[in-house]
Design goal:
Order of helices and strands: HEHHEEHEHEEHEHHHHH
Radius of gyration: 21 Å
Shape: globular
Mean pLDDT: 90
Strand order of the largest sheet: 5-6-4-7
Largest sheet: 4 strands, antiparallel
Structural class: alpha+beta
Distance between the termini: 27 Å
Low-confidence stretches: 1-12
Length: 296
């Protein structure tokens, strides 16, 4: 199914790095053993990444502290660092659980207000990135909101980044408020709806083939990785906004059902393909390759 050739969302030279981390996170994230670089290069080639680009990506991931390396003779081996395993575990927990929140909303918003000088652009970028990961969105430039109880998490981020001029409060919107900019306007609901609908349109037709076993191992690996690359971005766009704030027929649950069935259904076949590639370079390690599911 050529339509699912992976186009990683990272830009330019980041694509091979992003791909390698995704593959390690899906099939190797909890393993202490190192894989030969040739096996990782071979896996990247399944997605059209050239050997040269894959090797450059491996070197850059090592310099960034996400991969560790060792040499045996002329062969180089790479493995995830403890830091990388922790980051992947945290991200995996959130991504796999996304779309399953069901507790009722109490109508309260967490509001993080801050002031960071324009010249401190790196700090502004880091703060915004981490707040968005927590489920916040900007109602105004220096006022970010979340529909969930995220006070402790927001305070931790502000302290960690040493943002001095900031406060975090819990607030409610008065009933019948005439103001146009209620907190939910921090999210572009129409844009998010279109992304969910695009996801459903792309992957729902695949369900029957998955159920009938009509997907080959190589296609399963490519499609499953593309699926994860798309799904992992939704928590940054939609912090599982409560139903009370959403238009009718919000497509999140439908998209979640499709993601879970396709991701889980393609897991065994994708694992077979990863094992095949690894076996060409390190047959003794193939038994450690393991796919994960939305349940663990």
């Amino acid at each position: 199914m050529g339509g699912h050739r992976l186009e990683m969302r990272a830009a330019g030279d980041d694509k091979p790095r992003h791909l390698l981390v995704t593959l390690l996170g899906d099939y190797w994230w909890d393993r202490p053993e190192y894989l030969p670089s040739a096996a990782l290069v071979g896996l990247a080639s399944e997605f059209g990444v050239t050997p040269a680009a894959a090797r450059v990506a491996l070197s850059r991931l090592r310099r960034r502290g996400l991969l560790a390396s060792s040499k045996t003779g002329r062969r180089t081996y790479y493995g995830l660092t403890q830091r990388a395993r922790l980051v992947l575990a945290e991200g995996r927990e959130r991504i796999m659980a996304f779309g399953t929140r069901s507790e009722p909303w109490d109508g309260r918003w967490t509001v993080a207000a801050f002031s960071v000088p324009e010249e401190r652009r790196a700090l502004r970028h880091a703060l915004r990135t981490r707040l968005r990961w927590l489920g916040f969105a900007p109602l105004y430039d220096g006022m970010w909101v979340s529909p969930h109880d995220a006070v402790g998490q927001a305070l931790e981020v502000l302290r960690d980044l040493e943002v001095e001029r900031a406060t975090v409060v819990v607030a409610t919107v008065p009933a019948g408020s005439p103001l146009a900019h209620t907190p939910v306007t921090a999210w572009d609901l129409e844009h998010i709806r279109k992304l969910y609908e695009g996801f459903v349109e792309e992957y729902e037709p695949l369900l029957e083939r998955v159920r009938q076993g009509g997907v080959g191992a190589s296609e399963a690996l490519i499609t499953r990785t593309a699926l994860m690359d798309t799904w992992r971005n939704f928590p940054n766009l939609d912090p599982e906004l409560p139903d009370q704030l959403l238009p009718p027929d919000w497509p999140r649950r439908r998209a979640r059902g499709i993601f879970a069935e396709v991701y889980n259904g393609l897991g065994p076949l994708a694992e077979v393909r990863v094992k095949q590639v690894v076996s060409w370079h390190a047959p003794e390690l193939t038994g450690f390759v393991r796919h994960h599911t939305t349940g663990g």
